Amino acid sequence: MSTDNSIIRSVVESSASLYFRSQVEDSIIGNKAIVGDSSRVISSNIGDFVRIDRNNLIYHSKIGRYSYTGPFDLIFKVLIGSFTSISYGVTIGPPEHDYTILTTHPFLYDSRYEIFSKEEVMISHKFESPIEIGSDVWIGCNATILRGCHIRHGAVVGANSLVKVDVPPYAIVAGCPAKLIKFRFPEKKIQELLDLGWWNWSVEKIRANSYLFIDEHPINLCR
Question: Among 134, 206, 146, which residue's Cα sits nearest to residue 171?
């Protein structure tokens, strides 16, 4: 663990690694998790073996075991499953601006601009719409996923995509806005995989069923 980081009101497992100028505040960092150079983790729960790459902002989020992020990712108030792969330059759950009122400027919500006092500023709802990323999801580089979207288990989001609506399990979507390209597997097999829920297995069970992951075309799905 680097001595050039900042840990504030947080629980960090002794086996975790916090790198140069990383900051962890009001958070939990799991066993053998990594927080990369200049990354900030605020009010979040980072699971075992999670890798947060450099220059990330993880804000009010929960990331399940073995998931990882790439460099320069921004993740705001998101629930992320296990074994999910997030490439570089990805933004998930950016804050929303209310364009139906007179101005979209944040001085309405923040007294630091010294226009309205703390008693006068409005309550912000910029993170109100829930957003959830399932397990075994792959999100390509520079993708943006807007608030209110749910990316289901096993889905793939193509690079540079803008996701505005829910993505079904094992669907592949891409584009701006993102549209369905195809499904990774036939409908019957998708249901089998969802029933299997291998991402909830213990590591020992994954090892014991290694053929399911190594064989390119596994025939039988075992529980």
Answer: 134
Alpha-carbon distance of 74 to 91, in angstroms, equals 5
Cα(41)–Cα(25) distance, integer angstroms: 6
Distance CA 19, CA 25 (A): 15
pTM of the predicted protein model: 0.91
Are the CB atoms for 145 and 134 separated by under 8 Å?
Answer: no
Task: Please name the helix (run of DSSP H) or strand (run of DSSP E) that holds residue 196, with its range, or none.
Answer: helix 187-196
Q: What DSSP designation does 36 have?
A: -
Question: Which stretches of the chain drop beneath a pLDDT of 70?
Answer: 1-3, 216-223
User: Residue 107 CB: number of other CB atoms within 10 A?
Assistant: 14
User: Which residues are designated catalytic?
Assistant: 97
